[in-house]
Write a structure and sequence with these properties.
- It is a single chain.
- The strands form two sheets. Strands 6-7-8-3-9-10 form a six-stranded mixed β-sheet, sandwiched between helices. Strands 2-1-4-5 form a four-stranded antiparallel β-sheet, with helices on one face.
- The protein has three domains: about 110 residues; about 230 residues, Rossmann fold; about 30 residues, no CATH class.
- It is globular.
- The protein has 14 helices and ten strands.
- It starts with 8 loop residues before the first helix and ends with a helix.
- About 50% of the residues lie in helices and about 15% in strands.
- With about 400 residues, it is an alpha/beta fold.
- Bound molecules: adenosine-5'-triphosphate.
- The site of adenosine-5'-triphosphate (ATP) has 10 residues, from α5.
Length: about 400
């Protein structure tokens, strides 16, 4: 930071970049330490190897501390504040400098806190509002086999609900496995909140992600709903008092708070999936992937789960990916990714995608029920288009 009165955006960005750079190094060192610990436990590495990772982690921690506790930073903050206080003429530049100053001060505070609270395994910060960016991702299951995901690039902003559609075998599930890091792309790169995903930081990146699978019965571990939601939290060694709060809050979000003592296997399909969503939500992921989460449910269960997904979308606190064969669901989404033969062939709003009815049919996709009704109405002379739900359709018909 320069020694001037006004803390400008450039200074602030320099500070952020520095903090992020050191934060990443610390997170990476923490992750490597955790990995070596597991390797030693599994007999895949010698105990003597551990010391190197402990030292690297300590060094990274010191480097980070040095930045966050640097007297130069501190002095500059104090001087900037004293000078801001002296200024009488409070114009636009002053206001923006003040905002920058406050943001820098908060960053400074947060970084000190991060050091205090950080355990041995690090955490990555959000460096971008783009929740997920895929850049030219390709994948094949074996060298002798063809590519099943081909050069896929996409950017999804935090808070968006993205439906991924495509005919059987088009690559949707493979793509979701690449996103959660179960599979590794053979080409291309992936960024989660601006963090480049690498082998070393994958486990930390996974903390941003939650997934709800297709079969509700395969997702249960606990003997009660509460135990089940607690499972992931226990793995993260959350303190028991906080755990209770988190379990209740997550159950409430899916309207299952009255079922905490129930046995999961006694619940309906829709309720089971809601518990699976609560288990994912309890870990506070920023991105949730629904992998055909409604496909095995009866109509009531489907409705219940879709309602929860829309409620989650409306909070704009989560980025949602939903792999689905249910073409009606795409109307709930902000964006739709259309996969065909491993390629991302369309990416746009539901309205933009649904304009291309002939194209959708050509790649063996149905169009949503409402769009089919519109088509039938158009054939008999009612000019109705781009309706988003049944209520809107009824209103439009009544106006004709
Ligand atoms: N484990 C695997 N080994 C080899 N090939 C695989 C494997 N899993 C999927 N594939 C192939 O990869 C391609 C993409 O499959 P993927 O399951 O990603 O498609 P999908 O769009 O999710 O299909 P569906 O809607 O039927 O679930 C298909 O050709 C499939 O046969």
């Amino acid at each position: 930071m320069k020694e001037n009165v006004y803390l400008n955006k450039g200074d602030l960005n320099d500070f952020k970049l520095k903090l992020n750079e050191f934060n990443d190094k610390l997170a990476q060192a923490g992750q490597e330490y955790v990995e070596i610990k597991f390797k030693i436990i599994n007999g895949e590495a010698e105990k003597s190897e551990k010391q190197h990772y402990i030292d690297t982690h300590k060094k990274a921690q010191l480097a980070y501390k040095e930045i966050a506790n640097s007297p130069i930073f501190k002095d500059n903050f104090l001087r900037a504040k004293a000078q801001l206080d002296k200024i009488n003429q409070k114009d636009e530049t002053f206001e923006s400098a003040k905002e920058n100053y406050i943001e820098a001060k908060n960053l400074y505070k947060a970084s000190k806190m991060a050091i205090r609270e950080r355990g041995i395994s690090g955490e990555l910060s959000k460096q971008s509002e783009i929740a997920l960016e895929l850049k030219n991702i390709s994948f094949r299951y074996a060298n002798s086999q063809p590519l099943v995901v081909k050069n896929v690039s996409v950017k999804v902003n935090h808070g968006e609900y993205v439906a991924i559609i495509g005919h059987n075998g088009s690559g949707k599930s493979t793509l979701s496995k690449l996103i959660i890091g179960v599979l590794t792309p053979i080409e291309g790169s992936m960024h989660v909140f601006g963090n480049h995903v690498t082998r070393n930081n994958l486990n930390i990146i996974r903390r941003f992600l939650g997934i709800v699978f297709q079969n509700p019965d395969n997702q249960f571990i606990g003997s009660t709903v509460k135990d089940d939601i607690a499972f992931g939290l226990e793995n993260r060694r959350i303190n028991p008092k906080l755990m209770q709060e988190k379990i209740e809050a997550a159950a409430k979000k899916v309207r299952m708070e009255r079922f905490l003592d129930h046995e999961p296997l006694m619940l309906s399909g829709g309720q089971k999936q809601r518990v699976a969503i609560a288990s994912a939500l309890a870990l506070s992921p920023d991105i949730i992937i629904f992998d055909e989460a409604t496909s095995m449910l009866d109509p009531k269960g489907k409705r219940e789960v879709k309602e929860i997904m829309v409620e989650l979308k409306n909070t704009r606190e989560k980025t949602i990916f939903s792999i689905t064969h249910d073409m009606d669901e795409i109307l709930n989404a902000d964006k739709v990714m259309v996969m065909n033969g491993g390629n991302l062939v369309k990416f746009g709003t539901p309205k933009e995608i649904l304009k291309e009815r002939d194209f959708l049919r050509s790649i063996h996709l149905d169009i949503p029920f409402i769009a089919q009704v519109e088509e039938a109405l158009n054939e008999v002379g009612f000019k109705i288009n781009n309706t988003e739900n049944l209520d809107e359709l009824v209103v439009k018909i009544c106006k004709k």
